[in-house]
Amino acid sequence: MPDNSISASETLRTGNRVIQFGIAAIVLILGLAAVGLFRALPDANAFNARVEKLFIESDLTSPAEITLLEILAQSGTAFSETLMSYRIVIFVLLVFSTALLIASLVFLVTLLALNRRVSQINKQGIQVGSLLISRAERVVVINDMEFKLTEAAIETLAVLAEARMDGDILTGAQLEAVIQGRSESDCEEAAGATRIKRLRDSLGNQMVAEILVKNISRQGYVLAIDKSVIRMV
What we know:
two-stranded antiparallel ribbon, 233 residues
């Protein structure tokens, strides 16, 4: 249990660091891109400045020339307003892209953490805090999950639980022999394997069934849980 806690805390710290560095990198890259983009855009008042310079340096006296300057000034104002709206749109798009990239990074790190956790469960077995077996009611409660089993399945699980508490690993033939009350030599390995298959089918949850009842190659079957959490009534 302490190893699992240390591993989980290390994974959490690593994930937090990745998220922090990733967010900082995203903000830095997009910030530099925004600065470069805004600096590359022309000045909103550049057109008006040119018109003003033309008005000062030119000796325009006729009504037609003055009207032309007024039109140019109005065009410059329209240009500056349009450019300002472009700046606002670009800023909004940059903020939106930053939020999307940060969300994508968080989801990616979360998926990686979940995949690592599932991999640890597959390697170490399901973490069972309590296993209660009621032969009379033909019910098994694994943590907070309750399963209604058949009589044959509950008997198979009970024998496996007793073997686990004794520290034993049962082959298919030994399992069949204990249940049937016969000699191991009179029982077949396939019969015990069939009982294991039916037990897993009765549990229903494929993940729970495959991880809870382990098949150790060339040794036999065992419950992959701490024997101290097993209770039988």
